[in-house]
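Shipment paperwork, digital attachment
Item: protein structure file
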Amino acid sequence: EQPPEAEGLDSCGTCRSCQQIEARTHPDFFVIEPDPDQATRQIKIEQVREIEHQIMYRPLIGERKICMVDDADRMTIGAANALLKTLEEPPEHSLFLVVSSRPAALPATIRSRCQALRFLTPARTQVEAALILKREIPPPDARFLAIISEGRLGEALTADVKDTRARQQEFLNLVRPQSLQSIGAILSSAEAIAKADRAQDIFAWLARWIRDLVLIQIGGDPDQLLYVDDLKTLEAYARRADTDQLLDLLHEIEMTQQRATRNLNLHMALETILLRLHDAVATSSTLLPA
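Attachment content:
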């Protein structure tokens, strides 16, 4: 369905088709995405097979049937293999949109059968300006959300500032010297986080924290730091930390996040990473601020 004077527009946002797509009730548009209620967010093989059954029939309204696979890097191995069979011989009337912020985490066989289209995030200053204008929040909060969302404007516009800062503080308590120097405290924290299904969230916070350490070590722009309010502790850690070990940890966290959809033991992975962080920063409460 084409809106009036639609030349140069992708969509109007008001016609029946646009509204049905927004409500996910359009008969020719399907979405596969991880279940947000799952402890480990995955796309399962059953979801792919259900769409395969739907996509084989000709479209009812439009020229094509469209299937969007969102967060495609979260497919299980079985789901990826099932999708691969469809991508190898897709129906002529079908179009698949495989969306991922981590395309390297997708199987090479999937990537080889897709045409890559890269979308760049807006500059951080643009996100901050949009937040101040649309949400009327203070500049420090706008900066915080712009960095934490990594330029994803939609996420920044909907994020709860108070809740996000509370989660950040919870993480900071985890890496305080008095917590990180104790093996017992590390193991207890890892167990509590795993039981609360918070491991993946902590991995994300931890990766940002380690990047801040490395940024300080190489003399990077302080304006790029997320944990700027905790600068003294960061600088103290950065003076003692081994840069190569920190970079190895960042790589391990990234690989762990990618494998999180493969029935990985997140409790054990978190323990391992926190213990390696303990070794990397060589914590000593007498030399680090509390």
